[in-house]
Amino acid sequence: xxxxxxxxxxxxxxxxxxxxxxxxxxxxxxxxxxxxxxxxxxxxxxxxxxxxxxxxxxxxxxxxxxxxxxxxxxxxxxxxxx
Length: 82
Fold this sequence. Notes:
Layout: H1 13-23, H2 30-36, H3 47-57, H4 62-81
Helix pairs in contact: 3-4
């Protein structure tokens, strides 16, 4: 999808990303921490961007679309409780 949107990540991007994820260790994701604290998440800037770039390139992004919808539903419920 990056190539389809003319985004150059560099030749070593994928290996660096895998290495980073392996070294991250056990931790609680920041999006979960946001939900637990009843804060808005960064879902639009993460999964939402994948959906946007996929749409531009004509590539379906069903997992990212679903994840964004689920998190937006949680955010909606949190806001309704306030």
